[in-house]
Amino acid sequence: MYDLDLSVWGGFVSAVWQVAAGVLKLDPNAFLSTDALTGGWKVALAIVFLAGLSDMLGQSVVLFANRVTPRRFTVSLVMSALVLVISAVVWIVSIWLVIRLIYGFEGRFYRVFVVVSLSYAPLLFGFLSLLPYLGNTIYQAVRVWSLLALVVGVKAIAGAVFWQAIVACLIGWLFVQFIIHMPIFKIKAVDAWLWRVMTGTNERLDTQMLADRLAVQRGKLLRGRGK
């Protein structure tokens, strides 16, 4: 277990550091210690907030690549934060329903909130997704890492075996995908609309696409000079 003390600011910072490091190591005690800690939700909230900032920083390069204005850039970051919060809420509700209805988990909704929030810790490395060529790989890797952390956390608090935790997270993920792809919600259409509103552009360039375009332009320039 972890020695966590939230009575002073230094203790809170230390708790966030210790728990985040534990989650990154996929240590179930990190989840259990935070769950048992009075005010543990503050630690979980701090981690998901910092992870969100890092992830948004990584995605911000896409906004630069699309040459958005400073005002639209700010609006885009705020909207990205809201999307992250909404996705986290959907995850929390879906996981809680699954382990409650299927496995008879009697724990409070609060406990699932803590676990899901902590599972976002790998997104602390989300800022690395701004790297050209490696960015997309890192983006996917931290999300797989986050999913593994979620499985470990669910297993820890629900007292389930590993395969049950995997099934719970998988069903929760399918539930999220079901909502996303339901025609009535038109999530993809809304996403495209939000992108146009936030950036004022129709085409979404990522760092790899931008790097490819710059390489092509540089190649043409060099060939032009060689003639």
Topology:
Elements: H1 9-24, H2 28-36, H3 40-65, H4 70-101, H5 109-118, H6 135-158, H7 162-181, H8 187-199, H9 207-226
Helix pairs in contact: 1-2, 1-3, 2-3, 2-6, 3-4, 3-5, 4-5, 4-7, 4-8, 5-6, 6-7
Write a structural description.
- The protein is mainly alpha-helical and 227 residues long.
- The chain has one domain.
- Helices cover 75% and strands 0% of the residues.
- The protein is built from 9 helices and no strands.
- Helix 2 (28-36) packs across helix 6 (135-158).
- It is globular, with a radius of gyration of 20 Å.
- The mean pLDDT is 76.
Write a brief caption for the model:
With 227 residues, the chain is mainly alpha-helical. Helix content is 75%, strand content 0%.
Considering the chains and any ligands shown, give keywords for the structure.
mainly alpha
Strand content: under 5%
Q: What general form does the structure show?
A: globular
**Low confidence ranges:** none
Question: How can the largest sheet be summarized?
Answer: none
Mean pLDDT: 76
Number of DSSP helical runs:
9
How far is the N terminus from the C terminus? 69 Å
Structural class: mainly alpha
